[in-house]
Amino acid sequence: MTDSDARATARETTPPSPAFLRCACGWETTGSVDEVVAATDEHGRKIHNMAATRDEILTQVETIADNPAGDRYELHLGDRLAAVAEYRTIRGTRVFHHTEVDPEFEGRGMGSRLARHVLDDVRARGFPTRIKCPFLLTWIKRHPEYGDLIGD
Fold first, then answer.
1. 63: closest CA among 100, 106, 32?
2. CATH of the domain at 86
3. What is the per-residue DSSP string for 59-98?
4. Which residues, 6+ apart, have CB-to-CB distance to 9 below 8 Å?
5. Is residue 83 assigned to a domain?
6. Domain residues for 17?
7. Which residue has the higher pLDDT, 126 or 23?
8. Residue 122's closest CA among 75, 69, 66?
9. Which of 32, 34, 42, 117 is deepest in the core (most CB within 10 A)?
């Protein structure tokens, strides 16, 4: 089986992980964008500015999701691609080799949020993982609870 065959098989047999959404106000969900727009606090009050349109709210929403067709996780801010964590699936193992944050979005913690989501997702989905990406390796060293994902 070639690597491309293995990637195709993994895409066909692995259910997609839910998208992770985070609004600029800090509200988070693994649900839909509409949940962000309709979000209410514990008293039933809308969390987001009632005067804001759906499109205005969505420009502030971070979405992190696995894009298996592109062999990468993507972090979007609104409709803009802000960061990626690229991988290859080789004989069933996810090998992370590159992470990049668009320079316009650097310094906002997006790389860290992407790293945490990626590592939590591969752990939850049971993927054998190898980390070759220098950013992810450094991030894991600062977060030892993910040390088991480094492997040999």
1. 32
2. 3.40.630.30
3. TTEEEEEEEGGGTEEEEEETTEEEEEEEEEEETTEEEEEE
4. 1
5. yes
6. 3-143
7. 126
8. 66
9. 117
Q: What is the DSSP letter of 101?
A: E
Please give the residue that has the higher pLDDT: either 135 or 22. Answer: 135
In angstroms, rounded to a whole number, what is the distance separating the alpha carbons of residues 105 and 81?
A: 10
Calpha distance 4→10 (Å, rounded): 10
pLDDT(51) > 90: no
Rama region for 76: left / alpha / beta (φ>0; ψ in -120 to 50; rest): beta
Q: Is residue 59 assigned to a domain?
A: yes
Domain count for the chain, please give it. 1
Is this structure's pTM higher than 0.70? no
Q: Where are the alpha helices (DSSP H) in 1-152?
A: 3-13, 33-38, 54-58, 110-125, 134-142
Closest by CA position to 121, among listed 87, 80, 82, 91? 87
Residue 80: how many CB atoms within 10 A of its CB?
Answer: 11
Q: Look at residue 71 and tell me if it is in a domain.
A: yes
Whether 134 maps to a domain, the answer reads yes
Burial class (CB in 10 A: 0-12, 13-18, 19+), 101: buried
